[in-house]
Amino acid sequence: MLIHGIKKAWIALKTSDGKNLLTDDKGLSQNGIYELDHNVLGVASSELKGLDGSKLEKISGNNIVQYSYADPLNPQATLSINNLPMEILAKLVGMEKQGTGWQMADTKPVGAFIVEAPSMTTNDAVYFAFPSGNFLMGDKKLDTDTDSKKTPVTDQLTFAAIDDPNINDLYRIYATTDSDWKDEETMFKELFPDYKGASSVSAGGTH
Predict the structure, then answer these.
(1) Hey, is 66 helix, strand or coil?
(2) End-to-end CA distance of the chain
(3) In which element (H, E) is residue 87 found?
(4) Contact 83, 73 (CB under 8 A)
(5) Are 48 and 173 within 8 A, CB to CB?
(6) pLDDT averaged over consecutive 10-residue blocks of the chain (207 residues)?
């Protein structure tokens, strides 16, 4: 499928064992799913790496190549979010309130990341779903404004996938062209068995 751009993206926080979504004040929204929509001015970019082994290794014997295998998967996503609220950023990367500011905690929370890329030629789409992993906060480069332009700085995050206990793997790809595709709600319930449904989804959430 010829895909382009980013149509939708979602993030979530989970229990330390990766089995359940964190909801309400412990999570990012009432049911745990936080959509990165106009509330954060959208996602500017998302680069997905390591979806397959980094390279093929060959085993030779008797002067010929007898077998080949791929190195282990190492899926990662780098994403640029235009205007992520400080409280959401802090929860994702594992910061805690100290005094009236934020400091990094000793442990990283378990999160999730899903991004939808639409087809360029049809109304279909592909979803790249990483139901468990850890977020790292990217560097910040601050430049002065000038008399001719402003220099906004977006929120850069890196997400490293870890093995998810609900799917027993690192990620899944969903295509709406598949005969067994139903809808986003079914996808969410498959990835997160305790997901409560869209009736309680809130982009703003309860933080």
Answers:
(1) strand
(2) 37
(3) helix 86-93
(4) no
(5) no
(6) 94 97 95 95 94 84 86 90 95 95 94 97 96 94 90 93 96 97 96 82 45
- Residue in the structure block whose two tokens are 């895909």: 3
74, 50 Cβ separation under 8 angstroms: yes
> Is-contact 57 65, C-beta < 8 A?
no
Q: Residue 96 burial (CB < 10 Å; 0-12/13-18/19+)?
A: exposed
Whether the Cβ atoms of residue 167 and residue 141 lie closer than 8 Å to each other? no
Dist. CA 176–CA 203, nearest whole Å? 23
- What's this model's pTM, rounded to 2 decimal places? 0.88
- What tokens were used for 46? 């998302």
Using an 8 Å Cβ cutoff, are 119 and 12 in contact? no
CB–CB of 128/36 below 8 Å?
Answer: no
Instruction: Enumerate residues 6+ apart whose C-beta is below 8 A from 108.
Output: 93, 94, 134, 135, 136
User: With left for phi above 0 and alpha for psi between -120 and 50, is residue 108 left, alpha or beta?
Assistant: beta
